[in-house]
Amino acid sequence: xxxxxxxxxxxxxxxxxxxxxxxxxxxxxxxxxxxxxxxxxxxxxxxxxxxxxxxxxxxxxxxxxxxxxxxxxxxxxxxxxxxxxxxxxxxxxxxxxxxxxxxxxxxxxxxxxxxxxxxxxxxxxxxxxxxxxxxxxxxxxxxxxxxxxxxxxxxxxxxxxxxxxxxxxxxxxxxxxxxxxxxxxxxxxxxxxxxxxxxxxxxxxxxxxxxxxxxxxxxxxxxxxxxxxxxxxxxxxxxxxxxxxxxxxxxxxxxxxxxxxxxxxxxxxxxxxxxxxxxxxxxxxxxxxxxxxxxxxxxxxxxxxxxxxxxxxxxxxxxxxxxxxxxxxxxxxxxxxxxxxxxxxxxxxxxxxxxxxxxxxxxxxxxxxxxxxxxxxxxxxxxxxxxxxxxxxxxxxxxxxxxxxxxxxxxxxxxxxxxxxxxxxxxxxxxxxxxxxxxxxxxxxxxxxxxxxxxxxxxxxxxxxxxxxxxxxxxxxxxxxxxxxxxxxxxxxxxxxxxxxxxxxxxxxxxxxxxxxxxxxxxxxxxxxxxxxxxxxxxxxxxxxxxxxxxxxxxxxxxxxxxxxxxxxxxxxxxxxxxxxxxxxxxxxxx
Length: 591
Prior knowledge:
The protein is of the alpha+beta class. It is built from 22 helices and 22 strands. The chain has a 20-stranded antiparallel sheet, sandwiched between helices. A hairpin with a 2-residue loop joins strand 21 (547-555) and strand 22.
């Protein structure tokens, strides 16, 4: 056998040792080449993973993980069902035709969406300097020509607004970056197979491209332990997901507010700076929407926020006509100040200022409210179908009955001008009734017991509640929808809210719709936007509505806020605030 004395049996044949010495290195080289090709293919043609592309110290990252899935789930929501109603479609024709968004909105967004983007994201990388740095992108399957056609309207609008801008091309590796600059304004974009990116900074876009190609350019959010921790508090399947570090925003903008003459509470700023991160998401769950917000806090703030489960003292009085039930733990201020120029249309601030000497004579000040009253505040709003207006019942936990009585007597000794106070004993409660002389259809009052301070707008109901025993349970608790709402809220220790959105819409819209139809004829400006005769019927909308529930609770590493319903409480609050802001701005600019 000579030089082939040592043999190997492999697959039934014989291979010499010399052949093995040649074959093994070849296999190793082939493995390396295949691995390299796989990496290169993943870098050049892979999808979009925002957490891998964005630096670990980014201020915020907003994601839409599954746009197509979200679109399908949206079709099952109550809002989509309302929008699909023929009456609603007919009513919306005029206002939608009047809306004139910019070309970049009316043209680009629907066309890009039609391309079926995946994993959309926008990241605020930094707020340092004169302009914030951001980057956005999405995964796609479109050719460059298809994407250019979809973005043509946006590019045209940009050139119209910035005619002096200059377009250029920059080569980075095997990627061509399109740039547009106009003074300090910079916009950069890059098309790749399966990915498209746009940024406000050329170097930031280059770093994103390098990370996607597998080049090491510093830590990214993928390895950020804080982000992983806060996102673990959110549901797995969501439509939008946000990660935010508020500290850089506070540090950047608080000096600007102070420089503009705005009032800043340094103590509150210090507390806000302790917030480590915020995670938030919105999900579609059948007919409902669900918002989840988690605020990561240090151990000392968590310990200060932790308290026992809310007692919800007014739940026992809730009935089928209850529209809202609310309980919350509040922090009484250590110091109360009234700005001299603060607006006071009802004269309440003047009344409080006049009460300060009477409080001082009793050794009391507004800074001692926390000694007199406990943390839990509750409210109940009823609106019977037969009644013209809703009724309110409120409750504040009493911690020191003597101090609480002193506050009530001092504050009500000299009420707002035009009001008369009557005091009487009702069972174990001191009842203070405020008479308005018939000028308004309410009779507000306060009832003080050793356990709580009740207040309301109907003295008769307040007297009955103060005099009678506390019911074991309210009739609302027999409702299946309310029990489900309680179950989804868990055991909140900071806040709980229940809103019967269907009942509220039935009462408010059902009552106001005839006036809207009538009033539109006397307001020519309104008719430009809506056709009052096409206002949808109450049942058209309300049959799709259900309860809204909100809860806030302290967990071991922060605060968890959750809300679900056809609209969430967060969205209703935002819509109300936005409407008020638009109304205020319109009034300001039309003076």
